[in-house]
Design brief:
- By secondary structure, the protein is α+β, with helices and mostly antiparallel strands.
- Helix content is 37%, strand content 21%.
- The protein has a 6-stranded antiparallel sheet.
- Strand 1 and strand 2 form a beta hairpin.
Length: 139
Amino acid sequence: MATPPIPAIVNAALDSYPSAAKKRIMAFRKLVFEVVKENELATPEETLKWGEPAYLVKGGSTLRMAWKQSNPDSCSLYFNCQTTLLETFKEIYPDVFHYDGKRAIHINITDDYSEAALRHCIGLTLMYHKLKHLPLLGA
């Protein structure tokens, strides 16, 4: 699956971000579609939730992405805090990301980050309901 065009409503939200933040979020978006293809998942729903780009695949948990003026040097990925996703990520990747409770991973806009680790976290999120019964989500 090639990365599809961005829905107008999502593009409008992205256009409100500074260019470096938009570029980082676009890289995260590309990873979502690559993970979907690699795992032969259903086409994700791409929309806005709380004014932020959000991605949901049947059988998965919603993944949101955002840049916030209150934390201008980072882009964040938000996960459902009622899941075990963040506690699993912290266990598998304790020193790879900056975590915010049970809700978010923050990644500096200009710093390098582990694309492989982030890809894995995205995959676990998009397949969460299929994996939630497994220790460490099967990781």
